[in-house]
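Protocol step 4 of 6: structure prediction from sequence.
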Amino acid sequence: MRGLVPLLAFLGVMAYSLSMAVVTPALPLLQQGLRTTAAGAAWALTAMTLSAAVSTPVVGRLGDLYGPRRVLLVVVAVATVGMVIAAAAWSLPVMVAGRVLAGVGGGVFPLAYTIIRDVFPPERTVSAVGLMSSMLGLGGALSWCIAGPVIDHLGWRWLLWVPVLGLVPGLVAAWWIVPASAPREGAGVDWWGALLFAGWLVAALTALTQGMDWGWASPGVIGLLALALALAVCWLVVEHRVREPLIDLRLMRRRGVWTANAASLLAGYALMAGGVLFPLLVQLPERSGFGFGGTATQAALLQIPASVGMTAAGMSAGLLDRWIGSRAVLLVDAVATGAGYGFLAFEHGAMWQLYLGGTVRGVGLGFAYAAVANLVVAAVPLSETGVATGINTLIRTVGASLGTQVSAVLVAASVTAGLPGERGFTIGFAVSGVLMAGVLVVALIAPRRGERARGGQEIAVAPTALSSLSGGVDRVGADDPGRNT
């Protein structure tokens, strides 16, 4: 029975990734169906992103305290209810409310990492974490593949029902399969810290996502940023004083953790920068002199090879980790992603060039997501896995928001005669390539294989062997004397 636990974790992450990505292809039709504006329709995506950003570290902490099984059941149930509400929504406010509830499902990421660390023996944890990270790319690829047929033959609402088909069985399977674990004695939840954390994070991310529409110097954006700063200061004071903080700030200072978080921020930027630049470039009219005049379907097809490459890279990252270590895998990511964007900054006049550069970028990002997850998991005690990976996922979300907004600003700044100029795309690709040089620096600072900072001591955790994921997963980490090594 325990052998099915990792598969359930993979499917849960896959279902959530699909629910997050599936709205993007449907946004124009969603706008028409709910009789709202483009900015209003975009809140169907923004609301879930904000909810996931806030809930992910909180859910990770709850999983560390009370065990991943009971928290997973609640999270999947809430996310399922949210997706049902969103799919049946008759107005934009109802849609946004449903997507906020669905965003709680972002907590499946830290919970899944905790489950994997509990169930897999140490020599297989790296491969499993890499495979888990690849589910993000697979969810995005699948959403683009099914979007066209579902929308054309069934309508856009049915596209929102697709993730429910995965979440409902996942809820039943989680109740039946995932083993229970005892809560930590005497542990509590820092609810004041959670409230302040949610407050400053929502204020900051709302300012980032609305900056283009409201104006970066508008009172609304400036006020939100000021509120975020004030709440962040209060949160830091609380976290330093409480006995059981929501986020142990000392943990965040560990070399394996902060380097992985920095890399996640930059990788998140690089992922979503391409998500903005590629579709705009493909659909730009040919009269612009460099656009392709393509359809939305052609823009979607361009994303598929990159998503498949990202998935394949994540699945193979465990093997590479065994050979060269997560630090070296992160170096490979920086070189591959930087090379892909660097190529596109100079060569983007033909579709094959977009396919080539985009696919190389996708492979690099697949390695990145697997490497940073493994760095975090290996750098923290078992009891802190959920909150540490939750924060890492959150920082990736912040990077993605920055990538979206900055790339859109660069393109908008180049508009002449009503059309974006080529210079905006060139600079957008170049900025992403340059930022990957930052990942290269971070990778050089990250702990080498066999070194993980815990309590100021470097200890060996290098895997001794790599086995197939298909067998031997019935061993439980708590029964393994080397589990907390």
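Step 5 (inspection) to follow. Strands lie at 452-454, 457-459.
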